[in-house]
């Protein structure tokens, strides 16, 4: 069992009828820079279903945001190039679609919100105008009609006094309110999938709680699939159904949320979980992961985590472990995942 | 509850640093030729605390609550509007010349951003050794290079990298350089202003461990300012919670995290996601409405009342005293302070 490829993480062109809502399949993205080729995404596969929340967890440089950018087709190119793989929305590969068709899907069916709402909004237009633009461009609505719907949306994301604030500019809103405006724009056209890239990282913890609650509400109302990209193990534990852990451009572990925290199946996941300060470990050293993530221009041979892995052996230095099923619904890219899982390694 | 072991407890050493009613108001002026004074931002407004030798005082609060201004006041990078801060009994704002320089040796700071707090054109050796240029009496010129290499070794960097530049190091390593610079003059107090918030989780743990081991080794006292409540709990003996320029609650880490009595502390703790899906739904969720008010125009009475579910007319009229109220075992600034234990998950 432990040597078969996980069907859920590497599907082979499924029939249109039972294809997942959104699926990334064997995606490779590289950035060709002066300092060499940076391998940001190296064969990532994941999928999200209707009403489901998939959390993509990783530290900076793990490729989690670049994967999302590739889904949206907004990788900066050059220097970035999608060199292999597919992004299928209801079975249709977006990467091979003509730009015009793709644009219709982007925004309409798949929307994205970003970490930094201030720089994602246009400073010289009123926020209501920017939200209304979604309706004018995608639906050809009239100006007054679009504006009315912008106000409705601002209400829906709980911006107080929406009618009065529709003419305000982004700088007149607080960070949390700006993120709500971003969310209003993203959900304007009732997307089937929402990608949230570190939506609360720049916010205070009480405001973070407000925004996460809003996203949860909206998801319950609309049944959209949510891809939540984050580095915060706490946020993930609170909202995710499934987790994909990324390291150096690959998924190293994928599992349902309740199981990954109790019994991680990859040494990196285990290390991450142990790095978080916990009440019962106060006064003791945190078990930090030694060393640093590799440079993406120079990913080590074998397992990309082996230089930092306390359990690494000669095999790990030579042979890159594929992402394999360790249990129904969970997979790990570690040669010794079974032993990690049962705690003997 | 008793601290029988050697861990530094709040009742431990003598008081090193003590703030009394410390305040910093920044004047607001209109632009143009005739600049008029139109009010002030009350960044820090009446903060009092004590820091004992070998102790870590955690300061938590959200952006704009005045934590970083407090750090600058304690470094005397800002002059206070009122109040005083005493280091070993001496008001630091009265000192001048030589005495002030001696004080600066004893209180050092580590900044949040390891990218902008290091001069990119200086080598690591120059950065860590620069304090000796200002305080030449600490280390004779001849032995400085060796001392810098020692310091690099202490913080876990390779002493042979003394001639490298900051850009050749990662974020976590740069933070170690900042810590080495902070240690150079053998200070007694180090103020850590968000020292790990720019770092990834796995690297953050490394730096936290380093700070803890340096404290044991050199008997340092820390003021540890951060917005991450779990990080603060891990390292602190006592914790002060700030809201809009004021301390609203202080106590031992247990008092604050297990038996919070101020509504703001309760909301803050309830908002922190717990990295364990097994506890989902096991605690009361308090979602505060709105954003913190502007410190340029704070609410009358209790500053938290505009977002508080317990607020009454009294809260608008009377500023609550900072005292321990019946039923609670530590100081809070709330008329209706009451212990609440359903906002955190208790572990046995």
TrEMBL record, chain A:
Residues in ABC transporter domain copies: 22-273
Residue ranges crossing the lipid bilayer per the database entry: none
A GO CC term assigned to this protein in UniProt: plasma membrane
Membrane topology: Peripheral membrane protein
Record key words, sorted: ATP-binding, Cell membrane, Membrane, Nucleotide-binding, Transport
Pfam families per UniProt: ABC_tran, oligo_HPY
Molecular function via GO: ATP binding; ATP hydrolysis activity
Listed CDD domains: ABC_NikE_OppD_transporters (cd03257)
Localization: Cell membrane
Region of interest (Disordered), ranges: 1-20
InterPro entries: AAA+_ATPase, ABC_Ni/Peptide_Import, ABC_transporter-like_ATP-bd, ABC_transporter-like_CS, Oligopep_ABC_C, P-loop_NTPase
A Gene Ontology biological process term: peptide transport
Keyword Nucleotide-binding belongs to the record: yes
Protein family: Belongs to the ABC transporter superfamily.
Name the UniProt record assigns to this protein: ABC transporter ATP-binding protein
Gene source species: Phytoactinopolyspora alkaliphila
TrEMBL record, chain B:
GO molecular function: ATP binding; ATP hydrolysis activity
Protein name: Dipeptide ABC transporter ATP-binding protein
Family under the similarity heading: Belongs to the ABC transporter superfamily.
Native source species: Phytoactinopolyspora alkaliphila
Pfam families in the record: ABC_tran, oligo_HPY
CDD domains documented for this protein: ABC_NikE_OppD_transporters (cd03257)
GO annotation, biological process: peptide transport; transmembrane transport
Keyword Cell membrane listed: no
Ranges for domain ABC transporter: 28-269
Taxonomic lineage from the root: Bacteria, Bacillati, Actinomycetota, Actinomycetes, Jiangellales
Keywords in alphabetical order: ATP-binding, Nucleotide-binding, Transport
Domain of life: Bacteria
InterPro entries: AAA+_ATPase (IPR003593), ABC_transp_ATP-bind (IPR050319), ABC_transporter-like_ATP-bd (IPR003439), ABC_transporter-like_CS (IPR017871), Oligopep_ABC_C (IPR013563), P-loop_NTPase (IPR027417)
Keyword Transmembrane attributed: no
PROSITE patterns noted in UniProt: ABC_TRANSPORTER_1, ABC_TRANSPORTER_2
């Amino acid at each position: 069992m432990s040597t078969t490829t996980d069907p859920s993480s590497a599907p082979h062109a499924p029939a249109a009828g039972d294809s997942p809502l959104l699926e990334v399949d064997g995606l490779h993205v590289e950035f060709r820079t002066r300092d060499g080729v940076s391998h940001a995404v190296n064969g990532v596969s994941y999928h999200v279903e209707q009403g489901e929340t998939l959390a993509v967890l990783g530290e900076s440089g793990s490729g989690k945001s670049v994967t999302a950018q590739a889904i949206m087709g907004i990788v900066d190119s050059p220097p970035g190039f999608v060199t292999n793989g597919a992004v299928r929305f209801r079975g249709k590969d977006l990467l091979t679609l003509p730009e015009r068709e793709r644009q219709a899907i982007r925004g309409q069916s798949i929307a994205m919100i970003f970490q930094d709402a201030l720089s994602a909004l246009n400073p010289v237009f009123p926020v209501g105008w920017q939200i209304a633009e979604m309706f004018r461009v995608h639906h050809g609505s009239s100006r007054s009609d679009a504006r009315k719907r912008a106000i409705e949306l601002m209400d829906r994301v709980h911006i107080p006094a929406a009618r009065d604030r529709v003419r305000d500019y982004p700088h007149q809103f607080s960070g949390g309110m700006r993120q709500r405006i971003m969310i209003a724009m993203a959900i304007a056209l009732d997307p089937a999938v929402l990608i949230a890239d570190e939506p609360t990282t720049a916010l205070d913890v009480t405001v973070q709680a407000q925004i996460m609650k809003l996203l949860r509400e909206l998801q319950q109302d609309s049944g959209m699939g949510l891809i939540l990209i984050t580095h915060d193990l706490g946020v993930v534990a609170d909202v995710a159904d499934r987790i994909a852990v990324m390291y150096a451009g690959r998924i190293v572990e994928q599992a349902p949320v309740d199981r990954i925290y109790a019994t991680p199946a990859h040494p990196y996941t285990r290390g991450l979980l142990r790095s978080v300060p916990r009440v019962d470990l106060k006064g003791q050293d945190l078990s930090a992961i030694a060393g640093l993530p590799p440079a993406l221009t120079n990913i080590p041979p074998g397992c990309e985590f082996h230089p930092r892995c306390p359990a690494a052996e000669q095999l790990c230095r030579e042979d890159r472990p594929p992402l394999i099923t360790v249990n129904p619904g969970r997979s790990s890219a570690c040669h010794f995942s079974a032993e990690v899982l049962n705690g003997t390694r | 509850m008793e601290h029988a072991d050697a861990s530094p407890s709040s009742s431990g050493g003598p008081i090193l640093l003590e703030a009394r009613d410390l305040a910093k108001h920044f004047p607001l002026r209109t632009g143009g030729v005739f600049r008029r004074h139109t009010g002030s931002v009350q960044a820090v407004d009446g903060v009092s605390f004590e820091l004992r030798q070998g102790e870590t005082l955690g300061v938590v609060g959200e952006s704009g609550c005045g934590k970083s201004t407090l750090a600058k006041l304690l470094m005397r990078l800002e002059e206070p509007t009122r109040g005083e801060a005493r280091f070993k009994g001496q008001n630091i704002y009265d000192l001048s010349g030589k005495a002030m320089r001696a004080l600066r040796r004893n209180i050092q700071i580590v900044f949040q951003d390891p990218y902008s707090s290091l001069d990119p054109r200086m080598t690591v050796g120059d950065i860590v050794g620069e304090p000796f240029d200002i305080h030449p009496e600490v280390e004779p010129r001849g032995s400085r290079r060796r001392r810098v290499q020692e310091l690099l070794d202490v913080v876990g960097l390779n002493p042979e990298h003394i001639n490298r530049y900051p850009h050749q190091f990662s974020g976590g390593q740069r933070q170690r350089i900042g810590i080495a610079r902070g240690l150079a003059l053998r200070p007694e107090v180090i103020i850590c202003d968000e020292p790990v918030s720019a770092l990834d989780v796995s690297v953050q743990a490394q730096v936290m461990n380093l700070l803890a081991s340096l404290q044991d080794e050199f008997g340092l006292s820390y003021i540890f300012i951060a917005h991450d409540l779990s990080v603060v709990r891990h390292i602190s003996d006592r914790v002060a919670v700030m809201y809009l320029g004021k301390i609203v609650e202080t106590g031992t880490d247990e008092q604050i995290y297990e038996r919070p009595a101020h509504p703001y502390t309760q909301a803050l703790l309830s908002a922190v996601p717990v990295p364990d899906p097994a506890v989902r739904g096991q605690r009361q969720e308090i979602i505060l409405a709105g954003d913190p008010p502007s410190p340029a125009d704070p609410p009358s009475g209790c500053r938290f009342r505009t977002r508080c579910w317990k607020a009454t007319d009294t809260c608008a009229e009377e500023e609550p005293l900072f005292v321990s109220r019946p039923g609670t075992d530590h100081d809070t600034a709330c008329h209706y302070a009451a212990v609440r234990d359903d906002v955190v998950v208790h572990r046995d």
